[in-house]
Amino acid sequence: MGTQQYTQDGLTVPYIAFWTGEREARPRLLIRRHGRISRIGYVDETLHDLDGWDGLWVRHSLARGSGRARFEWVHAMRQRQTMLHGYCQICRGPATDSRTGRQLYVITGTEPIREGRITSAPPVCTACAPDAVRSCPRLRLGYQAAYVEEAPAWGVSGIRHVPNTTRPRPQDRGKLIAVEYGHPDLRWTIAYRQCVQLHGITPVNVLALAA
Q1: Quick check: 196 and 154 in contact, CB under 8 A?
Q2: Residue 190 and which of 51, 57, 88, 204 are 20 to 30 A apart at CA?
Q3: Could you read off the pLDDT of 29-54 as tens digits, one per residue?
Q4: Of 78, 51, 60, 77, nearest in space to 20 by CA
Q5: Distance between CA atoms of 97 and 5, rounded to whole angstroms?
Q6: What's the number of CA atoms in the CB half-sphere (13 Å) around residue 6?
Q7: Three-state DSSP class for residue 93
Q8: Most distant CA pair in the chain: distance in Å?
Q9: Per-residue pLDDT tens for 109-166?
Q10: What whole-number distance in Å separates Cα of residue 197 and Cα of residue 209?
Q11: What distance in Å separates the CA atoms of residue 35 and residue 19, rounded to the nearest whole number?
């Protein structure tokens, strides 16, 4: 299940990349109360704003291919889609190896990928792994790669708010913070990334795959 591919400045644009023609909506926030439980919400909230674990998601418009790609920015809906359905973050094709049932993850940093690692980086298919390394500004600074047997949903990464208010937490300084499903902070977080937990790790050399 692929999708139209775009190139820019000689690079393949990842499916999850944000484009300048897309916008982040900023709907008015309020506090929703359900008995003794309260959480942050949108004034015009719909079921599409929530995931299956009651996480509230940022709204990004859909205009893939419009304007210029921002390689360093990630579109929330497309990132979430690739994580939950096992799509390649570059081509949106299946990221699962048909022979082994494993998925390939390429993650920023020099620290080896270990059992139980939490990540918001979607998987890539073997054919697209070299493009992922070339196209992603962060991966150029260093990366690790591994085949993974399981990657269940763990939580989200987003903007946390002060409980019982609509104010972002000043101590987070606008950074995306990972919040596990079931944690009280989830009720006060606007999600921008899906996070999964990696199990069954087998390190791999991406450049060798491309050889």
Answers
A1: yes
A2: 88
A3: 999 998 889 999 999 999 999 999 99
A4: 60
A5: 21
A6: 18
A7: coil
A8: 59
A9: 888 999 999 999 999 999 888 877 877 777 878 899 999 999 999 999 999 999 999 9
A10: 24
A11: 41
Spatial distance between the Cα atoms of 165 and 41, rounded to a whole number of angstroms: 11
Alpha helices by DSSP H, listed for the chain, are 76-85, 129-135, 206-210
- Residue (of 95, 49, 81) closest to 194 by Cα position: 81
For residue 123, what are the contacts with CB-CB under 8 A and spacing of at least 6?
A: 82, 83, 86, 87, 88, 89, 95, 96, 103, 104, 105, 148, 151
At 202, which amino acid appears?
A: T
Q: How many residues does the chain have?
A: 211
- What is the C-alpha separation between 88 and 79, in angstroms, rounded? 10
> Which residue from 205, 88, 100, 198 is spatially nearest to 150, judged by alpha carbons?
198
**What whole-number distance in Å separates Cα of residue 119 and Cα of residue 154?**
9
Sign of CA dihedral 115, 120, 124, 128: negative
Confirm if 56 and 50 have CB atoms less than 8 A apart: yes
User: Does an H or E element contain 18, and which?
Assistant: strand 17-19
186 is written with which tokens? 């989830």
Residue bearing tokens 């919040």: 179
